[in-house]
Amino acid sequence: xxFIWREYLVLAQxxxxxxxxxxxxxxxxxxxxxxxxYAAFCHARNYARDHQRFFPSNKADDHGRVRLHFKTRGxxxxxxxLDRLRQWRNQCDYDDTISGLTVLLSSAIxxxxxxxxxxxxxxxxxxxxLRIAFPIDELWDDGICTRWLERYLHPDGLTCPHGGRSERxxxxxxxxxxxxxxxACQGSYPLLTRTVFAxxxxxPATLVR
Length: 209
Ligand SMILES: [Zn+2]
Fold this sequence. Notes:
With 209 residues, this protein is mostly helical. Helix 2 packs parallel to helix 5. The protein has helices at 7-17, 25-51, 62-72, 76-94, 101-118, 123-126, 142-153, 204-207; strands at residues 168-174, 177-182, 188-190. 51% of the residues lie in helices and 8% in strands. The longest helix has 27 residues, at 25-51. It has 2 domains: 7-120, Up-down Bundle (Four Helix Bundle (Hemerythrin (Met), subunit A)); 124-207, no CATH class.
């Protein structure tokens, strides 16, 4: 299973508040700035590769090439954010002394969040209803696909077909999909209720491909 690069950003945020008896806060903060950059860079590189016909060289020059790719597409803010992050990351990984590291880390996390939000497919908004495409790099199991399908098929929220209430609990699954029992009327309904997929026998991960 390919690594999900945005997990590095979660790690960076964790290091921001983590207090260790065995290493200094400076070591944690330097590491977190560096991880923030790689979360954003590798995510952006893979997105460009998978959706925008960018061909990585898988060498050091990819750092510049990815920025150039987004600049050429007119997505200057992504290129600029990546460049800022890379400079901060270089400082943290090479310089003997750094001032204002706390602020630097907050800025690095914010920049990485900006890039991850910008460089992603809001696919449930963009794709026409019946031709489902899915960001393959984010697809890895039925659980993820089920959550994605719920957002895609019920953009206003999944509600009970009998009374429109949203309070629910899990009920026995129907095929590969979860079903729910309404807390208000005790009626049961599957995730795929009132959709074109209501009678499907396929797995969630197959359905969204
Ligand atoms: Zn109900």
